[in-house]
Each structure stands twice: as structure tokens, then as C-alpha cells.
Write a structure and sequence with these properties.
This is ABC transporter permease. Keywords: Cell inner membrane, Cell membrane, Membrane, Transmembrane, Transmembrane helix, Transport. Belongs to the binding-protein-dependent transport system permease family. By secondary structure, the chain is mainly α. It is built from 11 helices and no strands. The two termini are 27 Å apart. The protein has a single domain, classed as MetI-like (MetI-like fold, Orthogonal Bundle), CATH 1.10.3720.10.
């Protein structure tokens, strides 16, 4: 928001006070993140300031063969699979809830997004007892399904928001021209809701890649993901290797945010197009 040229001195003063306050709040929120990054280049063996020297030894440690790469491999297996399943189930659920009108639709929507509201420990305990009954504990399948449940609400919300401006008469038009429901979905509906799907998928990926509580209950030592490895490192031996991996995750999160902003602007341009 730009300052209007006809603003009074009081309005100008308030404008700069407001901008300065917002800047200080933003700095307060992101300062802990920026503190981590220099520590990843420390030549010392502990997380201390001032830095004893500059070194890339901790990046070499996490990228060498060992527990860090094994946990990263597990996360790169689980997160994409969970994201694909969450995008599929979440999109179908959002389209179905928007297309149909039946009693209890609000309750079903509330149940779908409940993993975002219910405390994660309660969700983890519930999954633990349920998966124990069906034999999915200590397996990639169980971990992927658990993270899918956590990712579905994000896809439902973003696709549901995208469908608010969707004209379902287009589906009727496609059906009147002889297209099957599946073809109508892939040729008419899907191209218009892709930005919402991808945005929800990015949130689902970030949730799976960063999730630790449910993984502690579901995964075995062979399925140890990257957040579990970081959690164990903090509990047992705090080394700058954790800061190095945290720096990489910060860069990954920044790329995800940039991608989501790009998709948001693209969706706005598509809606504004005649």
C-alpha cells in the first residue's frame, strides 16, 4: 500500500509507524531462523556463538553415507507418495462435496479436516492402535497412509476454495455433448483446479517431510525419517550437523512458499481472464 500524495503529516507519521512496527514484528519472527544458518558453517563441534571458524564439514557429514542420508532417503520415499495420495483423495473429496448436496455434508467436511484441528499426539495415538490392529505398524505403507491422512485436509481446503468460482454448468455441457464423467473431469474440471491441487499438495508435502510425532509412533528404526533423525540428534548430541540440515530445510520451505505464491497469482489471473 503506497502513501497517497495528499496525506496529512499525521497520516504520514502513522503510515511509517505502522510499516516500522510490521517490520519489527517480522524481524522478531524470522530472527531465530536466521540465527541457525551461520551455525551450520561453524568449524566447531557445538552450537556456539561467536563462531570459532568457517567450515563445510557438517554439510559433508550429512551428505556422506550414514544415518542422515538414510533418513533423507526415507523422507523422500514417504513424502512424495503421501502427497500423491493426499492430492488424489483430497481432490475427489472436494469435488464430491461441492458437486452434491446432501444432509450431513458439513459434518463430513469437518471430519476430513479434523486432523488439522485435533492435537497431533491424539491423532498419533489413535493411528498407533488402529494400525496395530491391521498390521501396518513399522512399515512404509503405514507411514505413507498416516501422512496421507495428515495431508488430505490441506488439499480439501485449497481445492474447495478453487471450486468456489467454478461453474458446474460446464460439466453439464460436457455431458450433453456425449462425454463420459471421467472425460469431463479430466478435460473440463481438472485444468481449472490444478493450482488448488498443487498448492494443497505442497502443503501436504511440507507436512509429511516435517512431521515427527506420528512418525515416532508408526515408524520403526528402519523407516526413520529426517525429522526423527533431527529429533534424536537434538536429544542425544547437539551438533552443527542439525543446523546444516535445518538450513537445507529452510531453503526447501522458501522454494515451496515461492511456488505457492506463483500458483496463487496464476490462479487469480485465470479467474480474472474473460
Amino acid at each position: 500500500m503506497a502513501l497517497p500524495p495528499y496525506a496529512s503529516p499525521v497520516e504520514k507519521l502513522w503510515f511509517w509507524i505502522f510499516r516500522g512496527s510490521c517490520g519489527l514484528i517480522l524481524l522478531f519472527l524470522i530472527a531465530p531462523v536466521f540465527v541457525i544458518i551461520p551455525l551450520s558453517f561453524s568449524s566447531g563441534s557445538f552450537l556456539t556463538y561467536p563462531l570459532p571458524g568457517f567450515s563445510l564439514r557438517w554439510y559433508e557429514e550429512i551428505f556422506s553415507a550414514g544415518p542422515w542420508m538414510e533418513s533423507l532417503k526415507n523422507s523422500l520415499i514417504v513424502a512424495p507418495l503421501a502427497t500423491l495420495l493426499a492430492m488424489t483423495f483430497g481432490t475427489l473429496a472436494a469435488v464430491g462435496l461441492n458437486r452434491a448436496d446432501f444432509p450431513g455434508k458439513g459434518l463430513i467436511l469437518a471430519l476430513l479436516i479434523s486432523p488439522m484441528v485435533v492435537p497431533l499426539v491424539i491423532v498419533a495415538v489413535g493411528m498407533y492402535f488402529f494400525f496395530a490392529q491391521v498390521g501396518l505398524l513399522n512399515s512404509y505403507t503405514g507411514l505413507v497412509l498416516a501422512h496421507t491422512v495428515l495431508g488430505v485436509p490441506f488439499v480439501v481446503i485449497t481445492v474447495n476454495a478453487t471450486l468456489q468460482g467454478f461453474d458446474f454448468n460446464q460439466m453439464r455441457a460436457g455431458a450433453s455433448l456425449g462425454a463420459s464423467p471421467i472425460r469431463v473431469f479430466f478435460t473440463v474440471v481438472l485444468p481449472q483446479i490444478v493450482p488448488g491441487m498443487v498448492s494443497g499438495g505442497l502443503f501436504a508435502f511440507a507436512t509429511s517431510f516435517d512431521e515427527v510425532v506420528v512418525a515416532l509412533f508408526i515408524a520403526s528404526p528402519t523407516e526413520r525419517t529426517l525429522p526423527i533423525q533431527m529429533f534424536s540428534g537434538i536429544r542425544e548430541n547437539i551438533s552443527p550437523a542439525i543446523a546444516a540440515m535445518a538450513t537445507i530445510l529452510i531453503l526447501l520451505s522458501t522454494l515451496l512458499l515461492i511456488t505457492m505464491e506463483f500458483l496463487r497469482r496464476r490462479s487469480e489471473r485465470l479467474k480474472a481472464a474473460p
